[in-house]
Design goal:
By secondary structure, this protein is of the alpha/beta class. 24% of the residues lie in helices and 26% in strands. Helix 4 crosses helix 5 and helix 4 crosses helix 10. The two termini are 21 Å apart. Bound molecules: NADP nicotinamide-adenine-dinucleotide phosphate (NAP) and zinc ion.
Length: 352
């Protein structure tokens, strides 16, 4: 075991503070990673503030961070895919049971024994796992991804969660070429959804509550933008969408978006508001519409997504911050004031 510097919160009402955590020594299958960048996901904020208490209560101290890019500093004796010096990524999971049907199908995120990167029972050290707001992490090589070397690393980090969480449901929906696709909420997830939907050849429409994001939405790849608080704009395109990806982090009227779908259209939720949404049966019945959910993506699909991004030059649009600004960044995240992901430059932790 060794000590690593990290930023943690002591309770749901606390601010982040600098300190140290314990990491395990690399076992034979492990890779030790020096963390270079870590994205700030809204899930970090939900967890830190214990907003998902009824489903996944938070254990404190909590060190979030599951959009990790770093460099391998040590590899265990049985590690075959990585060596010291390699650029790698770690997303929302660091282990699973490797034997269940979900693991066999490459859907480790649904494994009942999966270990999430933070706030999950730690099989090695007891207590809970600690995430990427830290100088290093030790991970089973089966949950470590190869990171393309041709992309900006600060913008690659958010691909490990925001990227795969939007790539996976869009891929699963089918061939979206020429189809009308909506992305609701232009934040960390939403802006990646726009980039992927555009790259797959869809007609992309952004729904936003923030009129000041309109120009950016077009720059990021949207063909059209609807200000969702404008009833006339919503009405004009009602019933015309094939697929909508809903990334909203807070309570909202989902029926307003179901009404935008055409016959047999699907709306997939990736946003995870803390309170249940009220769904109108009639909104779904007329037009045989469906409502689904999607959770990140499996490890193989995450690698596929990273390789796709390397090929198409896709990264997240990031605002790079030192870790000392993390409390401020959280305040801005709540106000939907991030363009479009904060990425923490972990070199800033060395000065603590
Ligand atoms: P984010 O950067 O804060 O973006 C969320 C966007 O939703 C905001 O930028 C805003 O966009 C819109 N929004 C926020 N509050 C709203 C409200 N009250 N009404 C309408 N729109 C609102 O968050 P994120 O990191 O993209 O995460 C989004 C959600 O996905 C979070 O709940 C997160 O926990 C969840 N998540 C799920 C998964 C998964 O596997 N399913 C993975 C990662 C994250 P506009 O300004 O454009 O309106
Ligand atoms: Zn996330």
């Amino acid at each position: 075991m060794y000590k690593a510097k990290a930023y943690s919160v002591a309770s749901a009402a606390s601010q982040f503070a600098s300190g140290t955590i314990t990491r395990r020594e690399t076992t034979e299958r492990d890779v030790q990673i020096e963390i270079l960048f870590c994205g700030i996901c809204h899930s970090d904020l939900h967890t830190v503030r214990d907003e998902w208490h009824s489903v996944m209560p938070t254990t404190y101290p909590c060190v979030p961070g599951h959009e990790i890019v770093g460099r391998v500093t040590k590899a265990g004796t049985a590690v075959t895919n990585f060596k010291a010096g390699d650029l790698v990524g770690v997303g929302c999971m660091v282990d699973s049971d490797h034997t269940c049907p979900n693991c066999h199908d490459g859907l480790e995120q649904f494994c009942p024994g999966s270990t999430f990167t933070y706030n999950s029972p730690d099989k090695h050290l007891g207590g809970v796992t600690y995430g990427g707001y830290s100088e290093s992490i030790v991970v089973d090589e089966r949950f470590v991804l190869r990171v393309p070397t041709n992309l900006n690393l600060a913008g690659v980090a958010p691909l490990l969660c925001a990227g795969i969480t939007t790539y996976s449901p869009i891929r699963r929906w089918g061939d979206i070429k020429g189809k009308k696709i909506g992305v609701v909420g232009l934040g960390g997830l939403g802006h990646m959804g726009v980039k992927f939907a555009r790259a797959f050849g869809a007609h992309v429409v952004v729904f936003t509550t923030s009129p000041n994001k309109k120009e950016d939405a077009i720059r990021l790849g949207a063909h059209e933008v609807i200000i969702s608080t404008n009833a006339a704009e919503m009405k004009k395109q009602a019933g015309t969408f094939n697929f909508i990806l809903d990334t909203i982090a807070a309570d909202h009227d989902i029926n307003a978006y179901i009404n935008m779908l055409g016959r047999d259209g699907n709306i997939t939720l990736v946003g995870a508001p803390e309170t249940p949404l009220q769904v109108s049966a009639f909104a779904l019945l007329f037009g045989r519409k469906s409502l689904s959910g999607s959770l990140i993506g499996g490890i193989a699909e995450t690698q596929e997504m990273l390789d796709f991004c390397a090929e198409h030059g896709i990264t997240s649009d990031v605002e790079v911050i030192p870790i000392q600004k993390v409390n401020e960044a959280y305040e801005r995240l709540v106000k939907s004031d991030v363009k479009y992901r904060f990425s923490i430059d972990m070199a800033s932790l060395k000065t603590e």
